[in-house]
Amino acid sequence: MLAIIIPYYKIRFFEATLQSLALQTDKRFKVYIGNDASKDDPTVLLEKYQNQFDFDYHFYDVNLGSVSLTQQWERCLTQVQGEEWVMLLGDDDVLDTNCVASFYENLDKIIKSEINVVRYATVVIDQNDLPLSGIYKHPELEKTTDFLMRKFKGGTRSSLSEFIFKTSVLKDVQFNNFPLAWFSDILAVLEVSNFGLIYTINEAVVSFRLSGDNITSRNDNLVLKNVGSFEFYHYLIKEKSPFFNENEIMTLKNQLEKTFLDNKKSLHFWRLFTILYFSNLFIKSYFMFICKAMKMVVK
Question: Any residues with CB less than 8 A from the CB of 299 and at least 6 apart, and which?
Answer without folding.
Answer: none
